[in-house]
């Protein structure tokens, strides 16, 4: 493996590590905005009545969401498929498409909520009752479409690639496969329970497991990849000495 490959390994590792930290920041910012009532995001009147400082926190939450839970997986997924293309075969191409779709739907939802919160809040604050009701209805519709539509469909996407990646990485000597399997099945359960409104508590619980475990796996993956990048020259030197 050449110097360029080592740089790619480090870039991938730091993308995973920084992404994991930002994903945890997303969780913290979300709690700071909503407190224990995560469903508050789905209610337009509650969100649009927030003070400007709290709305800014929510917008930063969406930035951390994009840079933590989504964009790093373009790098991680690209490295994984390249590194294990022989083992994956046709599954590698499928994983690429699934990861890209996961990122697209996730970023779309986060960017929508980021972009419309302030304009709708200004309409809500300065409008008459009809304007306030309309602004609240628009936020409620978009938030529900994001939370229960775009982000909900992530379930089968992650359920597809996460267990495959966990098994391949485990065979190659990587740690943390169980974390990735928990993430995959957590996403699958979140998707399944989304069909049943009466099971919203279980759906929220599975979502909480996912948002806490996935960043942990990202940190562990990045740390292992950094170690492999650092030890790579020594392995190459040893291989050269035996030839």
From TrEMBL:
Keywords: Membrane, Plasmid, Transmembrane, Transmembrane helix
Source taxonomy: Bacteria, Pseudomonadati, Pseudomonadota, Betaproteobacteria, Burkholderiales
Keyword Membrane belongs to the record: yes
Name of the protein: DUF4386 domain-containing protein
Highest taxon of source: Bacteria
Ranges that cross the membrane: 12-33, 57-82, 94-117, 149-169, 178-196, 208-226
